[in-house]
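Assess the record.
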Amino acid sequence: MSSLISRAKINLCLHVVGKRPDGFHQLQSLVTFAQFGDELSVVDYGRTGNGDKLQIQGEFASQLANDETNLIMRALKAFRRQWPNALGFDISLLLTKNLPIASGVGGGSANAASLLKLVSEISSIEIDPRQLHKLALGIGSDMPVCLLEKPAMMAGRGEVIVPLENFPTLFAVLVNPGIAVSTGKVFASLGMTKNPALPDVGKSLETVDGLVSWLHRTRNDLEGEAIKMVPEIGQIIERFQGDVNCLFARMCGSGATVFALFDNMEKAEKGAVAIRRQWPQFWVQPTVLMGSA
């Protein structure tokens, strides 16, 4: 059985800097990935004649369909259409769903990216990475960076990706209030779609102190609208900002997940305990955010 962790995608900042002719928003973002995520496995493949199957287990399994509407199955269908001779067999998949649904951490895109990686490995023909990147973008804007799964600057609608060297490892707590947020509704409610661009990076992203200082000069342009929909997002951010050990806190992506950064895992664990004490019903996950090493 072949398995991959579909790591949570963390937008440390997200600037909406314009509207494209194709209707998509022009974005700029700094992205990294948590060690924690879902897990996708190829359980079996062969000439069964029963078609491709997806089974889902885990904490959030009941909230996710396993039919053709699932992004994993859509990615598999797109892969088969692009390379009709690559997979001459049916595939049985198992998804362990550990990440909240519609939470702004790219769980669906990460799972679909894992699917593309897994089937590329068992393909009977060699898959061109550039064509795979193009296919991924056609499935979803977050897909190309989830294929990379490394710290990167992201621009456009997600197709422009610049991997970062010397990006530091970070210690974080992810918190979700258990309320799904529609990315489409958040974008649709934006009053301003042409906002200032990200500040110059230089070497500020090579140390934790430099990164945090730079983040304070950036924004998540979706945060205000998401907080209007889910006030708990703002309450979580304020709680972290009152924690003397917290270096920085912000909403991730389109919400409702909030990330908070700490000096080390011990402080992150203490921050997580405090959140669980105040809101025992919230999903809380201390984790490491991956550096470029």
Remarks:
- The domain at 165-289 is CATH 3.30.70.890 (Alpha-Beta Plaits).
- The chain has two domains: 2-156, 165-289.
